[in-house]
Write a structure and sequence with these properties.
CATH architecture: 2-Layer Sandwich
Distance between the termini: 4 Å
Structural class: alpha+beta
Order of helices and strands: EHEEHE
Shape: globular
Radius of gyration: 10 Å
Number of domains: 1
Number of helices: 2
Helix content: 10-25%
CATH topology: Alpha-Beta Plaits
Strand order of the largest sheet: 1-4
Number of strands: 4
Strand content: 15-25%
């Protein structure tokens, strides 16, 4: 599974980081999502999917399964 972020849509709520800090982080300057691991390993897929679903702006996307 691969994930990505649409930076212009992200508002910096950091729900993704709260749900899956292994894959998502927050930029210290702009406060927006940073993808730490674009290729999500199988053991983190469920957490990453939850993070994508919890983004209020829909800034996170699953690129491929």
């Amino acid at each position: 599974m691969k994930v990505d972020v649409i930076p212009d849509v992200c508002q910096g709520h950091a729900r993704c980081q709260d749900r899956c800090p292994e894959v998502f982080s927050t930029d210290a300057v702009e406060g927006k999502c940073v993808i730490l691991m674009a290729d999500v390993p199988p053991e983190l897929e469920q957490k990453a999917r939850l993070a994508v679903k919890n983004c209020p702006e829909g800034a996170l996307i699953i690129v491929s399964d």
